[in-house]
Amino acid sequence: MSTPIGVIGLGAMGRGMAGSLRRAGYAVHVFDVRPDAVQAFAAEGGVGCSSPADMAARCEIVVSVVVNAAQTEEVLFGASGAVEAMQPGALFVMCSTVDPNVSIGFEKRLGERGILYLDAPISGGAAKAASGQMTMMTAGKPEAYAKAGKALDAMAAQVYKLGNQAGNGSKVKIINQLLAGVHIAAAAEAMALGLREGVDPAALYEVITHSAGNSWMFENRMAHVLAADYTPLSAVDIFVKDLGLVLDTARASKFPLPLASTAHQMFMQASSAGFGREDDAAVIKIFPGITLPKKKS
Description:
By secondary structure, the chain is an alpha/beta fold. It has 2 domains: 4-166, Rossmann fold, CATH 3.40.50.720; 171-286, N-(1-d-carboxylethyl)-l-norvaline Dehydrogenase, domain 2. Helices cover 50% and strands 13% of the residues. The protein is built from 13 helices and 9 strands. The protein has helices at residues 14-23, 35-43, 52-58, 69-77, 100-111, 125-131, 142-148, 151-155, 168-196, 201-208, 216-226, 236-252, 258-275, and strands at 4-8, 27-31, 47-48, 61-64, 91-94, 116-119, 122-123, 134-140, 156-161. Strands 1, 2, 3, 4, 5, 6, 7, 8 and 9 form a 9-stranded mixed beta sheet that branches. Helix 1 runs parallel beside helix 6 (125-131) and helix 9 (168-196) crosses helix 13. The chain is globular. The N and C termini lie far apart (47 Å).
């Protein structure tokens, strides 16, 4: 395959997705606000672009892996945005976690220009993105899927088709983030209690990860705590945003979410304490009277 595909956003997920597409044989064009990230990918065989518009002029498929709705808006409609250079029949794949109504709005606005759109948020973390094993929750018109061809399968092991118009992909991602955020918060609370009670943290981790109380988030994130490594693969502020979206969605239909509300407050507290840009496992730092593991020398 030599089909040119563009990837905007070379963060923890986008960098891996671009690599997966390149391994599948696509000519991958990339853009990021960090020139060094673009240069590094170009050195491995990709093609660097100077702006979203520059990319859209070269690629009929543009995959956006930026942080939020505001960044997606800028990528599409801002200065040097992609939309002005995209031709009718081109495809925009939106992989950010956003309010479902925002995604529906993007599809409508692009559709008025004859541009195809896929609501396609992602999950799985940086490692699965890098290996092409992540999950993609998609919704869009049949023509959009046809245009995407095999590109989605090149990026994800599981591509779920959840409807023929935008919105359902984002709704399912919102629900996933509810669970992810609550699980991280609960994992941090459990580890914090163990530390407060004087339990050896490594022993606690070993027992829980082989017992019924385990979760993927406990196993993954509490390993960061044990290593005292808060490098932000997914930051505290991501869950301030994502759980905020969860609560906004539920509030619109007056649906109660007591656990999500509590988890959101925990991440808000961690962010307010100065940990917003640290790994989301840093939510454990809000608990008083505990001594966290330190990095081994």
